[in-house]
Design goal:
alpha+beta; elongated; six-stranded antiparallel β-sheet; Thiol Ester Dehydrase, Chain A
């Protein structure tokens, strides 16, 4: 699924191509049980993330992905489809990361990204900052995770 109004492809996308208010939909990525368990064993070893039998008796009623695993899957889609492959200069961080619904093996995740605000740097006119509101959705269209992202991007044209 892709519904995007970007005028430039991702390998020719610069700061100017991120338009305030634009909404972009991208996806999809499948959540696999083996990856949920492997991620949990390595990074978030809670039973409801790594043991399907014990997870049945948890408040979730079954195995769920770690929120950090969900964020990693989101990041994969964000980098593959939204973030410029030629102009990205990194990020100072994200704000208001929220896990709203459990992500389960078998789910298929997609993204809806809204360009909240863009501003060109006054001190470094070759770049700008893009504020994005990122929603991760499951196959039912339910929002399972949200966050506000900040990204530095090179400009196509220097003032």
């Amino acid at each position: 699924m892709t519904n995007s109004s970007f005028s430039a492809p991702i390998d020719d996308r610069y700061f100017e191509d991120y338009v305030d208010g634009a909404v972009h939909d991208f996806g999809s990525i499948a959540v696999k049980e083996s990856e949920v368990v492997d991620f949990a064993k390595r990074f978030d070893p809670q039973t409801f993330h790594m043991n399907p039998e014990l997870a049945k008796h948890s408040i979730y009623g079954g195995l769920i992905a770690s929120g950090w695993h969900s964020a990693s899957l989101m990041m994969r889609l964000f980098v593959e489809h939204y973030l410029s492959h030629v102009a990205s200069l990194g990020s100072p961080g994200v704000d208001e990361l929220r896990w709203l619904k459990p992500v389960r093996p078998g789910d298929v995740l997609s993204l809806r990204v809204t360009v909240s605000e863009t501003s060109r740097s006054r001190s470094k006119p070759d770049r700008g900052i893009v504020h994005s509101y990122v929603e991760t959705l499951n196959q039912k269209g339910e929002v399972v995770m949200t966050m506000k992202a900040l990204n530095f991007l090179l400009c196509r044209k220097t003032l």
